[in-house]
C-alpha cells in the first residue's frame, strides 16, 4: 500500500495514498503503523484526507490499532475524515471510540496535550 510518511519531532503522520481503503490494504497499513511502537517517535497521526471509501473491516482494524497504541502509552489520532468515511465509522458505533480531529493541526495539539498528561500522571507514581 502506498502511503506518505511525514516525520515530525514528536510524531509521525501517515497518509494513505488511495481513495478506497480495503481490508487487505489496511492490514499492510497496520503493519506499517504498529512498527512505530518500537521506534523513538511512537506517536502517530493517520491522515485520511484522500480516502473516500472504506470497508467495515478496515474501520474495525483502525479502531484496534488505536487501542493498541493507547495500551502502549502512545498517541494515535485520526484526522481529516471525509464525510462518507466518517458515516461508516459512525454506523459501526466506532466513531465515538476513536480520537478524531477535523484537521492535522488539531491532531498535533491532541498529541501535545496527551504527552503533557502522560508526564503529569507519571509524576504522581
Q: Can you give a write-up of this model?
A:
The protein has 125 residues and is α/β, with parallel strands linked by helices. The protein has one domain (3-124): Transcription Regulator spoIIAA (2-Layer Sandwich). The protein is built from 4 helices and 7 strands, in the order E-E-E-H-E-E-H-E-H-E-H. The protein is globular. The mean pLDDT is 94.
Rg, alpha carbons: 14 Å
CATH topology: Transcription Regulator spoIIAA
What is the spatial order of strands in the main beta sheet?
A: 1-2-4-6-7
Please write the CATH class name: Alpha Beta
SS elements, strand count: 7
CATH superfamily placement: STAS domain
The helicity comes to 40-55%
State the order of secondary-structure elements, H for helix, E for strand. Answer: EEEHEEHEHEH
* Average pLDDT, all residues: 94
Gap from first CA to last CA: 41 Å
Could you say which overall geometry the principal axes of the C-alpha atoms support? Answer: globular
Hey, roughly how much beta strand do the residues contain?
15-25%
Q: What about the largest sheet?
A: 5 strands, mixed
Structural class: alpha/beta
- Count the domains: 1
- By CATH, the architecture is named 2-Layer Sandwich
Number of helices: 4
